[in-house]
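In this supplementary section we document a worked example of the pipeline. Step one takes a protein sequence of length 98 as its only input; no multiple sequence alignment statistics are reported here. Step two produces a three-dimensional model, which step three serialises into structure tokens for compact storage. The input and output of this example are shown verbatim.
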Amino acid sequence: MRVAVITELTGGVAALDHLARALLETDIVMTSHIEDWAWFGHTGDPLAQRLLIDVYAHCIVNTDSNTQEILAWLEAMTQGSDCNWRRMLLRSWRQSER
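The serialised model returned by step three reads:
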């Protein structure tokens, strides 16, 4: 799978996580691409799951998105999470409210 190769060539999920978080406030489009590479390259990786949830939670809370976009992001967040996704989502929203 190409995306797994891209992830590995960039230094792995941890490197993509670091890069995506560095760009989160300034370039959400690139951040979303990086998050996709991490997630689709390694769907079982907890760090990739956490990144997916954090990026989409950021999009929901910090943009003037329409309802359709928000629902799509919420659906993606549920697919990218384990049994603790609700707790992780609530933690992300609480942190963004600070």
